[in-house]
Amino acid sequence: MQFDATFFAFVGLLLFLALVVYLKVPGMMAKSLDARAAKISNELAEAKRLREEAQHLLAEYQRKRKDAEAEAAGIVAAAEREASALAAEARQKTEEYVARRNALSEQKIRQAEADAINAVRAAAVDLAVAAAEKVIAAKTDAATGKALFADAIGQVKTRLN
């Protein structure tokens, strides 16, 4: 019997397989594969948990954003109401100021009219006195002047006593 290279390769293969079985390589490989499968399963479970947590956080942040938008809209509405109230108050104060200024101006105008009328009257009285003085001076003689003077002094004496 002659052994050729194929036979020796077959025997080497059988010895290798026997050695692999003796050293429990298939068990170690199965254990390693099981450990890797468990690790992958754990990673998938962790990824699923992280995804659920991220979705929960996303929903919470969306709710907070909506609440913040509603609060901002409320603040804007309150600011608009306050601005319109301030504008109405400013308009009312301006109208009151204009009314007071108009009343004051009208009062000053009435006072100026009264002063002008009094000035015209005073000028008319002065003019009338001057005219009367000229007329009396032209129509009276010395005797009449002395009589009027004496009469005026008598009236002053009676009023002073």
UniProtKB/TrEMBL annotation:
Bilayer topology: Single-pass membrane protein
Keywords carried by this UniProt record: ATP synthesis, Cell membrane, CF(0), Coiled coil, Hydrogen ion transport, Ion transport, Membrane, Transmembrane, Transmembrane helix, Transport
Cell compartments where the protein resides: Cell inner membrane; Cell membrane
One Pfam family hit: ATP-synt_B
Transmembrane segments: 6-23
Residues in coiled coil: 30-107
Entry superkingdom: Bacteria
HAMAP family documented for this protein: ATP_synth_b_bprime
The protein's assembly and partners: F-type ATPases have 2 components, F(1) - the catalytic core - and F(0) - the membrane proton channel. F(1) has five subunits: alpha(3), beta(3), gamma(1), delta(1), epsilon(1). F(0) has three main subunits: a(1), b(2) and c(10-14). The alpha and beta chains form an alternating ring which encloses part of the gamma chain. F(1) is attached to F(0) by a central stalk formed by the gamma and epsilon chains, while a peripheral stalk is formed by the delta and b chains.
Function: F(1)F(0) ATP synthase produces ATP from ADP in the presence of a proton or sodium gradient. F-type ATPases consist of two structural domains, F(1) containing the extramembraneous catalytic core and F(0) containing the membrane proton channel, linked together by a central stalk and a peripheral stalk. During catalysis, ATP synthesis in the catalytic domain of F(1) is coupled via a rotary mechanism of the central stalk subunits to proton translocation.
UniProt family annotation: Belongs to the ATPase B chain family.
The protein's name in its UniProt record: ATP synthase subunit b
Organism: Shinella pollutisoli
Gene name tied to this protein: atpF
